[in-house]
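Work package 3, deliverable 3.1, input record:
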Amino acid sequence: GAVVSQHPSWVICKSGTSVKIECRSLDFQATTMFWYRQFPKQSLMLMATSNEGSKATYEQGVEKDKFLINHASLTLSTLTVTSAHPEDSSFYICSARVGGVNTEAFFGQGTRLTVV
Amino acid sequence: QQQVKQSPQSLIVQKGGISIINCAYENTAFDYFPWYQQFPGKGPALLIAIRPDVSEKKEGRFTISFNKSAKQFSLHIMDSQPGDSATYFCAPGTSYKLIFGSGTRLLVRP
């Protein structure tokens, strides 16, 4: 299957700083990328959907000014957690789809963010 | 999100046994019904998926059974192995969006 790579795999940052997470589709062009958040032993919650070259669509309750998403190319999307606080500590996972009807979603390996 | 209900929450099966996980959904617009497998500290990986025009799909030891009228689908893992121990998520949805179930933690005892 297609490969989606996330970087970094884990990051520790100080409260109040910003952190950028990259999501790359390595062997295909992703027309749509998704960002999820997963707390320990819980399900994946969709945060936002981004299409290349356009603004991201955020799910209800997700602060768009806090979680900045940029989908600059068909192979790269970034999630920036601005002014991070301990409650933002979580497992962030991106997903990419080629496009078209009912195509498979490929997931990255996730990024563990710890805010201290 | 109550659109998707997954059960059981956890499951313990002996090696060689059958593991069965169920998923119920509400949105009749859903037209894609996948199951994902997730190991600790990793992203989910697609295990098997089915379209609504098919009632059953089998891939190796994994089978999806789909009941459109009941708005339910299930995952059957035959001859369960310790390596199958993971968390499984159903994630029905459309071409645009997937809604993840709450997950089932499967433990296969040797």
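Chain B has a mean pLDDT of 94.
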